[in-house]
Structures are given as C-alpha cells and as structure tokens.
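hey can u run this one w/ pyridoxal-5'-phosphate bound, need the structure tokens asap thx
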Amino acid sequence: MGGNEQKYIDEVFKSNYIAPIGEYINKFEASICSYTGAQNALAVTCGTAAIHLALRVLGVGKDDDVLASTFTFIGSVSAILYQNATPVFIDSERESWNLDPVLLKEYLESCEKKPKALIVTHLYGQSAQIEEIAVICKEYGVYLIEDAAESLGATYNGKHTGTFGDFGIYSFNGNKILTTSGGGMLVSDNAEWIKKAGFYSTQAKEPYLHYEHLEYGYNYRMSNVLAAIGVGQMEVIEDRVEKKREVFEWYKEELKDIDVEFMPELAGSHGNRWLTTLLFKKDVDIDKIIAELDEDGCESRPLWKPMHMQPLFKENQSVLNRVSEELFERGICLPSGTRMDRNDVKRVCDLIKKGIQS
Ligand SMILES: *Cc1c(COP(=O)(O)O)cnc(C)c1O
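ok here u go:
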C-alpha cells in the first residue's frame, strides 16, 4: 500500500456507505481518466470482467471470430469463450514480444471470415506496436480492445497503453503494479459504450422501480471500499513505475557478465517494467534455475505459456512464427517487487549464476 489507502477506507466506513456505487468509485474512475487521458472509465470487479463487458457491448457473439495475442495470460481471452465466440491467436514480434502487426495484416488480408475484434495484450508492462496495430484494425473494420492489465503507466509515443483502441482495460488484481486486492477498469473514448457497459455491469436493470428486464447483465461493479484503496494507489503510480524500472536496471547491471537477453523496450515506448523478464541461451535449463531460486525462497516463473500451446485451444486456429514458443522455452520472470533493494536483486542474481553453472 502507498500510504493513504487506510485513511480513505476509514472515510468510507465513517460514511457507513460501503455499498457499490459511492463517492470513491467516481474518484477512482476520474483519477484513471486524468492519469491515462482516457475519456470515460468504469470500475469493475476485475480485468477479466472489463474485457467481457467490452465484448458484450461490441455485440461479439457465437458466430464471431475474435483475434488475440497468443503470448498472454488466459485472462485476456477467457471472455471470448464466455461470449461463445471463437479465438484466433496471433504470434509475437521480437522488438516488444507482443502481437506482430505484420502477421495481423497478413491474416486479415487472406482470411475467409473477417474477425469482429482484436484483443491485444501489452505484456509485462511493455507496449505493443499499438499505433501500427490500431491503423490495421481501422483499415479492416476490426474493433480493437487493449488488454493493459499489466501495463498501467506504460506509454507509446507519449500516449498511455489502453487509450489507443475502442476499449482498454486495466487490472488491480493482487499481483499487478497497483492493486485493490481485486479489481478492474474499463476505459473508452465512447461515452455511450461505457454507459452501456455500466448497465450490463449492474444486472441490466431498466429504469423502473420494479426492475424491468429486456436484457440480462452481470454483477460486475466494483465496491466503494475497494475503490477507496484504488484512489490511494493511484497517488503512487508514478513512484511504482520508477521503482519497477530501477529494479530492472539493477538486474541488468548484476547480470551484465552473463549471456542473457532482457525484454526489449520498443523505440518510442516507455514501459512500466511490471516484471523483469529475460531470455537465457538455448542450452540453459530454466527449470534448474527456477528450482535454485525456489530453494532459497525466491519465487520465479517461466514466461506465459502461449495460448496456442494450451490444451484448451488445441482445435483453434493460430497464425504463428514460433517467436512466442521460443520466448516460452527460454524465458523467465524474476522477482520484481517494489520493496526490493539492491541486495535482494544481487541475491537473486547470485542464485541465477549458481543455477547456470551447476
Ligand atoms: C491479470 C491479467 C488479466 C486479468 O485481470 P484480472 O483482474 O485478474 O481479472 C488479463 N490479462 C492479463 C494480461 C493479465 O495479466
């Protein structure tokens, strides 16, 4: 926590208005808008719910294909299944490790069935080539949803990730750069869409006292208590980004003598370095390094297993260049907490060096 969260929660309790919809919801949404430059925001229970609402508002349904990054976390794509639509996965490029605009264009040029939307992920706090991707989506009439769950605070040519597409989403899950313990935010420059998403997020009640229903919705609205935490967290976002980037630089310095490749930063972009991630050379046994770290109480993980490699999606179509498979084979996420100091980073790096040698 940053400092003021407890105070804001106390204020919520003093007002005795802990129910959803309350003053802190409005404040949290307003702070996201003013920080990212998004025009409208809706605070919801989680990032996954925010993606689901975006697909629902755009009318994505069972006869639709939805394109998505294959190199991502399942939360990016599970809402496609909630809507009974069909995901089609697109591989990564090497400059940002995110969705390859060249493959995207090739697919849209040649596909028989035009997809309704694209969900592009800005992974590990690194912006995708989002301007190029946005232009392609416009050209082919494909809605663009940005999964910026991991990348709040990251920019591309000075503009925040999450604000280039028709919709953007952020997550405040426990592991993200900011957290409300659980939570999410849907943003869009289209006020009508955010209003509609708000309607679906509160059970699609028509405005009658007796709750008339023409459509069904969901119970996805964020609680005022968690929004109070979010308002406190937004006060420290810039400190968090700066600290995450510092931790990344420490890793780079500590590991400068061994042959590793850190996640690149795309020209013109400024990542939040949510997690420090790197690739080892082909002959390094990643499992052994993870075990070495684990033995000393340091948690690390392989990079996300691409969606097209998941048994769940074995029947799905994907457009591949093998980049994400190589990232998965050779990559690792390192401990990247903002409470880490230089010695913590050194300790992790000593264990990595030990793991490589053994
Ligand atoms: C965390 C995450 C999500 C889901 O967010 P929740 O708030 O946990 O539902 C979606 N996509 C990516 C890339 C994530 O890292």
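The mean pLDDT is 96. anyway lmk if its weird
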